[in-house]
Amino acid sequence: MGALHEGHGRLIGEARRDTECVVVSIFVNPIQFNQPEDYALYPRTLETDAAFCDARGVDLIFAPSAEEMYPWAQTTFVDVTLLTDGLCGKYRPGHFRGVATVVLKLLNIVQPHRAYFGEKDAQQLAVIRRMVQDLMLPVSIVAIPTVREPDGLAMSSRNARLNAEERRSAAVLYAALRHVEDRVRGGATGAAGLRREALDIFAREPGVRLEYFEIVDPGELQPVQQISGPVLAATAAWVGGTRLIDNITCLPAA
Amino acid sequence: MGALHEGHGRLIGEARRDTECVVVSIFVNPIQFNQPEDYALYPRTLETDAAFCDARGVDLIFAPSAEEMYPWAQTTFVDVTLLTDGLCGKYRPGHFRGVATVVLKLLNIVQPHRAYFGEKDAQQLAVIRRMVQDLMLPVSIVAIPTVREPDGLAMSSRNARLNAEERRSAAVLYAALRHVEDRVRGGATGAAGLRREALDIFAREPGVRLEYFEIVDPGELQPVQQISGPVLAATAAWVGGTRLIDNITCLPAA
């Protein structure tokens, strides 16, 4: 969706290493926004983005207009069920339908052999992986780790909206996730208790309104009670008027 | 779905003329049946079908098992909205979701340049055309006219289930459609009146239970009141325990 940062830079870098021709799609997709003001406010910085891509050896930028992607009222939609019931899916009805639909369109237009997605959007990544498997699409999905600021905040185009105080508070998402990761590595197995500990950490930042903090299985994103293998800890929170998400895959001690 | 007849033969013949390599997919798709007994009863004649294809110069038959097409519980579905509200969509909830989903999977697997569909399944054809446009799929959809028996009955794998008396009664679908086509060509413009005339024709065959007879626009399949251009007359009826469908595109006098 543009407003490129070092998280995107890493996707481009990996693609540049792996493949002959690197295409970056830049499209702020209207059908995945629940709130018109979020769509209107989403940063659009095509000129800077183009320079960013240029500097990293991108071969082609595909930056269609909304009218080119939706020349008539879209009537066909892709629904990935089950995986979209919880986490962000619960709070953003229709969001993943919009994401899956536009990603399928972009894949059909660009027809890449490999497509690179960031792990920061863990539910999106799981949804796209499942869509590709279920629809037997001829593309490999490559997941790229989240790039973080020095205090751990995951890079996001939305971070630019935070004022200084909000920016400081925003570090609580990563702090809570890291706490849970450490506890799981240390042998903790009860998800309910870990979730309460994470909520306590959030409670220390009254400027941050937690939307969810969940511990789920990494494949189908269903809630886990007893941790006996890798789990995904995922959270969404409002910092002022900005909604941020983050996640960590937690591995129990071997 | 196999049980190949001369309607399919015409699809193959056109593809054979147009293209270098002809692939026939034969797959009775479980997720498009509303009634388990219809799925169970659907004819499966792979050996005869293979000979049929051989005789017509088909290069490849793709006949996967249900386990190959659905190796795990399918969670991704394609919904074509609006066009599926009426006609068969009203009576077969989930049917077109199952059709769109399997056709997209088959297209992704086979990756044809052109795909051939029969006009007999008019709503299916419209749904697939719209899906291809909406999802920007790299394939051309080719529509092939319905092949009919001497009394006008549209060829269908389901016709084999009719007994002699049912087979005779089944001609009423085409008779009613032809009546409407003639009246439109003759200048009739009121769809409600034409629909009543068609219903009167059906009433003469008490062994046939009409499900619907509708006059709709051929693109989005929405009901038409005043006929001023091409319209689709479409019908579904039960003849004994067998559900038959048929349609004609009606052109007003120039």
Task: Give the gist of this structure.
The first copy, chain A, is an alpha/beta fold. The first copy, chain A, has helices spanning 6-18, 36-41, 46-55, 66-69, 88-91, 95-110, 122-135, 164-169, 172-185, 191-203; strands spanning 23-25, 60-62, 76-80, 114-118, 140-144, 208-216, 231-239, 242-250.
Query: What distance separates the N and C termini of chain A?
Result: 38 Å
**Rg result of chain A:** 18 Å
Greatest interface by residues involved: A-B, 26 and 26 residues
Oligomer: homodimer
The tally of helices of chain A reads 10
Major beta-sheet overview of chain A: 3 strands, antiparallel
Number of strands of chain A: 8
Shape of chain A: globular
CATH superfamily of the largest domain in chain A: HUPs
Work out the strand percent of chain A.
15-25%
H and E order of chain A: HEHHEHEHHEHEHHHEEE
Name given to the CATH architecture of the largest domain in chain A:
3-Layer(aba) Sandwich
Description:
Two copies of one chain form a homodimer. Chain A has two domains: 6-144, Rossmann fold; 157-250, Pantoate--beta-alanine Ligase, Chain: A,domain 2. The first copy, chain A, is globular, with a radius of gyration of 18 Å. In chain A, a hairpin with a 2-residue loop joins β7 and β8. Chain A is an alpha/beta fold and 254 residues long. Chain A has helices at residues 6-18, 36-41, 46-55, 66-69, 88-91, 95-110, 122-135, 164-169, 172-185, 191-203; strands at residues 23-25, 60-62, 76-80, 114-118, 140-144, 208-216, 231-239, 242-250. Chain A has a three-stranded antiparallel sheet with strand order 6-7-8. The A-B interface holds A 72, 74-83, 100-101, 104-105, 108-109, 111, 130-131, 133-138 and B 72, 74-83, 100-101, 104-105, 108-109, 111, 130-131, 133-138.
